[in-house]
Amino acid sequence: MRKIRVLAAKPGLDGHDRGIKVIAAALRDAGMEVIYTGLRQTPEQIVTAALEEDVDVIALSVLSGAHDYLFPRVMDLVREKNMEDVLVIGGGIIPDEDIPGLLDCGIAAVFGPGTSTSKIVEYIQEKVK
């Protein structure tokens, strides 16, 4: 059985990556293959890497407040590249009132501060068959 492949990405100018590294480690511990793109990636770089790496999941983390621009831009590119079968999830410091708009643009789920890593692992395992 093929491992679930996850691209973990930090779009934008946000320089804080401790959270995404903790998530990446938890996903690896759960048996997933994780590719971490590093800091300050453009939406274009993220989607290109996801396509090249043939991932099942794109996990975005934004703490800078630019999620309202970056997440929809990633989703636009995902649709342009006909990658609608890729699960895109987001996390970071995202106000509750912004979450419905992110879900409407195609982000499958948004995980805020304090979400247990096991909840994220279970969500991905449930959604990616």
UniProtKB/TrEMBL annotation:
CDD domains according to UniProt: MM_CoA_mut_B12_BD (cd02071)
Highest taxon, organism lineage: Bacteria
Residue ranges of every copy of the B12-binding domain listed in the record: 3-129
Listed InterPro entries: Acid_CoA_mut_C (IPR006159), Cobalamin-bd (IPR006158), Cobalamin-bd_sf (IPR036724)
GO molecular function: cobalamin binding; isomerase activity; metal ion binding
Pfam families (alphabetical): B12-binding
Keyword tags: Cobalamin, Cobalt, Isomerase, Metal-binding
Cofactor requirement: adenosylcob(III)alamin
PANTHER family (alphabetical): COENZYME B12-DEPENDENT MUTASE (PTHR48101:SF3), METHYLMALONYL-COA MUTASE, MITOCHONDRIAL-RELATED (PTHR48101)
Protein name as it appears in the record: Methylmalonyl-CoA mutase
Taxonomic source organism: Dethiosulfatarculus sandiegensis
